[in-house]
UniProtKB/TrEMBL annotation, chains A, B:
Superkingdom: Bacteria
All residue ranges annotated as the HTH lacI-type domain in the record: 2-56
Protein's organism: Paraliobacillus quinghaiensis
PANTHER family listed in its UniProt record: LACI-RELATED TRANSCRIPTIONAL REPRESSOR, RIBOSE OPERON REPRESSOR
Protein name, entry field: LacI family transcriptional regulator
Pfam annotation, one family: LacI
Keywords: DNA-binding, Repressor, Transcription, Transcription regulation
One GO MF term attached to the UniProt entry: transcription cis-regulatory region binding
Record keyword Phosphoprotein present: no
Keyword Metal-binding: no
Amino acid sequence: MASIKDVAKLAGVSVTTVSRVMNNRGYIGSKTRKNVESAMKELDYQPNQIARALLKNQSHVIGVIIPNLSHPFFAELMSWIEQYASSQNYKLLVCNSLHEAEKELNYIKMLRQNRVDGIIMCSHTLEIEAYQNVNLPIVSFDRVLSSSIPYIANDNYTGGELATNHLIDQGCNKLLHISGPLHYDLLANRRSDAFQITCMKNNIAYETIEGAHVKATFEENWDFIQQNIADKLSQVDGIFCSNDIFAYTLYEYAKSVGIKVPEQLKIVGYDYHSFTRMLQTPKLTTIKQPIKEIGNALASSLIDQIENGVHDNGSNTILAVELIKGETT
Amino acid sequence: MASIKDVAKLAGVSVTTVSRVMNNRGYIGSKTRKNVESAMKELDYQPNQIARALLKNQSHVIGVIIPNLSHPFFAELMSWIEQYASSQNYKLLVCNSLHEAEKELNYIKMLRQNRVDGIIMCSHTLEIEAYQNVNLPIVSFDRVLSSSIPYIANDNYTGGELATNHLIDQGCNKLLHISGPLHYDLLANRRSDAFQITCMKNNIAYETIEGAHVKATFEENWDFIQQNIADKLSQVDGIFCSNDIFAYTLYEYAKSVGIKVPEQLKIVGYDYHSFTRMLQTPKLTTIKQPIKEIGNALASSLIDQIENGVHDNGSNTILAVELIKGETT
């Protein structure tokens, strides 16, 4: 690829002159400018953004660590983050942690060594200290990492409340909740808190079963249901699942053992991502996360930190959720 | 972030000595090595990979341009590309072209300015000259760009043949094919060629309708069907769709107008991505693209070019497809 030296040589000027033309700095005669510009065009010269990044100590690159791109929620989230970042002239390095702590740690190290301007953390398999030591602008999705690291979340508590109240309104009185993993203090666990509190307030019998980390396949969910939930299905009349793929698997499982949804069993999911929107049979009753708004908020919050410095807790953002009534309740 | 100068200062040595320790070059006494290493640890020093990239003229960054990450095929493909690249110590810059030629062109320019080592092109909205002028290692997915640019493709012709023969074997004799866009000479068009030739060989009445660019939503496909296909549905008994999301929409549309699948109308799709694998009602009959193998081949072919130079045409890869028999035939 042509270098700035090649341009200078062809135009018959110094490298400093080429640099001045590119940056519109200092006095340059119109003939010289024309010569330099036509040399740049002839050589198809592209300014070296890596050299610029080194010089200005700003790479305009953002790292995003997610559990897995092939999960429809994260694919869609990533797509919105990329579109927002690109509109602000930032590029994205994408990392799949696959829910492995070691991979997540290595990605953080790699991103620091590559001098990204900041990191969007959507994977959370490490203890909080690991994130506090990163020493770069960070924004977190759905987890509180520290008072100096802003987070973006959907309104998980309201989501859990909407789902549970909806099941109760539809006449359920023996409820089950399949949560996400409860070990890390994820904000998604507020869905479970809301479920329990809403059941208690309404004097409804309830149970919570801790789900595994986001499963992306039908088969893994099916196995989990067989091992942990199958025996309980006939004893409950409403189930709130903390994600749509699980809710869909549960619907198919109930159907396979002759339990009618929604007549005998009502099911509410969570997410309303591209899979759910595409699915017609059944149309799931679910809680809609505003995925586009979450992606935009993650990107804009991080870019704001990069360009204007770290804020205090005031910059957390909680985005509203919505009940989508489908055919499973 | 700590610099190499800070490390040298704390360890009481010169920058050259720190650099020697890091690169294991020249003689370093064991006490000096220990001092430098403990200074690096104390300051949490991370070597600057951007400086290294500039020096070595290799960034270990690959650019990937895809139409849209939120489409399940590309999300899954991207996930496999990232996993392979990461295992070889390469990072990915991801770009959503959204099928817009101007965006695609800007991304190519941006990737060159950021000195990526090479580009994986999965979006094809430009004329071929635009790719030939890139002057970087490129590998293309499903499109022949030039004899010096390798491509990776699934065996589209065999896929089209398998789908069409399957419909004929199941007793269909009035066939319809919904292709992708035929304007660019994409390898996916070999599916349509195979459809036509197989119909002709078997003396089967057929028609091809040109579909629009990969639609990712049910609603857009539904509108397309209403406008372009609805009138023909009762006149055919088998339809080969060039993607699964379209096939699923068509199945739902046929159901809504009282046409029974597979009794009155048989449908075959193409892709077998995460959406199709998840979908239980119906299980689609489709042609399986080996998405993991395609992702691995794209990444390994590009890395091979980056590290060992450009090859001739011999390095194209065509990967085998497979008929998955579901409930729609």
